[in-house]
Amino acid sequence: xxxxxxxxxxxVLAFGLALAAVPVxxxxxxxxxxxxxxxxxxxxxxxxxxxxIAVLEGNPSEAGxxxxxxxxxxxxxxxxxxxxxxxxxxxxxxxxxxxxxxKLERNxxxxxxxxxxxxxxxxxxxxxxxxxxxxxxxxLEGPFDLYxxxxxxxxxxxxTKK
Length: 162
Known about the structure:
- Helices cover 9% and strands 40% of the residues.
- By secondary structure, the protein is mostly beta strands.
- It is globular, with a radius of gyration of 15 Å.
C-alpha cells in the first residue's frame, strides 16, 4: 500500500471521530437532526485546513449511507481529486464553484448558488473552490475516500516528512 493511500485512509478515519457528539435521533433508520443541534468540528486532515464538518448520518469510515456537511471559508480550494464512490453535493449557502479535470482551474468551473446541485460519478476527477463562506451537503455510500490527482496537493503530505 503506498503512503498516499495510507494517509488518505488515516484522514478518513478521523471522520469517525466527528461522530462522537452528533446529536441525532435514530430509530429504525430514521435520523432527525434539528438545525440548532448540527455539531461542527474541524474537517479531517485529508481536506485542506480551514474546513469544518458535520456528519448527519452514518459513519464515513464504514459502508452505508452517509450525509455530511462541509462549512468552507471564502477563497477555499479543494484541489483536483476523485472518490471511489459517487457523491451528490447540494449547496446550502454561499457560492460553490465546481469543475471537472486534473487541476483546479477557476475559469473552467461552474458556479452553484444555494439550492444548486451536482452529482459526480465515481472516479471522476474534479475540483472545487469558494468565493464566499459556503456550506454544502454531501450524500454518498460509504466508506468515504478521497484521492488527490496530484499527490503533492494532499494536505497530509507533511505527515510523511516526520
